[in-house]
Amino acid sequence: MVKIEQEVNERLTLSSDLVYSNRIDHQRLSRGSLTALVYGPGSGMGDQINPFYVAPVGSTATSETVRMSFDDLLGPGAYARASAESYFGTGRAEYKLGGDWLLTGSLMIGANTSTTARFNVLCPSCAILALNGTTDSNGDITTPSIVNTTTTVLNLPLTTANALDPFNPAASNRTSAAVRAGLIDPESYESARTTVQQYDVKVDGTLFHLPAGELRVAAGLEDLRYETDPTTVESLNIGLITSGAQVSSSLKYRREVESGYVEALIPLISAEMRIPLVRTLDIDPSGRYDHYSDFGSTTNPKLGVNWEVVSGLRLRANVARSFVAPPLSAIGQNGVSSADSLSSDLGPFSVPLDRFPQARVIPGCTSPTATVCTFNGSGVEGMIIDGGNNKLKAQQGKTWSVGADLAPEFAPGLTSSLSFWHNELTGGVNAPQPSLAVNSTGFASLLTIYPNGATPAEIDAARAGRPIISVLPQKVYWIYDFRGENALNLKVEGIDADVHYRRDFGWGSARGGAAVAYLTRFDQRIGDGPTFSVLNREGFNSTFPTLQTQVRADFGVNVGHASATVYLNHTGSFTYWGGTAVNDVVTSGGVPVGGGDKVRAYDTVDLHLSYDFAGGLPGSMQAGSTQVFVDVTNLFDRTPPFENATVGGVNSASISGYDPFSGSPIGRVVTAGVRTKF
Question: Does 675 share its domain with 551?
Answer without folding.
Answer: yes
